[in-house]
Amino acid sequence: MYGTVARMRLKPGVEAQMKEQLTRFEALDVPGFVTTYIYRMDADPDEIYMAVVFKDREAYFANANSPEQHSRYEQMRALLAADPEWHDGEIVYAGQATPAPTG
Questions:
Q1: Which of 39, 51, 78, 100 is 20 to 30 A from 88, alpha carbon to alpha carbon?
Q2: Predicted TM-score (pTM) above 0.70
Q3: CATH fold for domain 2-90
């Protein structure tokens, strides 16, 4: 898997709009898209981190370099106080809790 972690500063009062944009993106069925996580920082609620996961590097960059994604980025950027900090990379581990045995 491959993706990005972005540090962003929202303009005050736009969190609901950001969530709405992400919901619309998820409904597009973008090839290779897996999931998005958004973290709101305790120390500053206008600072968020976004982790986006794609099935592989090729799918990630196919989306990132598409004109459609650039348009979506411009809509998201309008909600931000500054340009995001992007940190792209291969996901080398993804853990998940294992349910305890029953019985």
A1: 78
A2: yes
A3: Alpha-Beta Plaits (3.30.70)
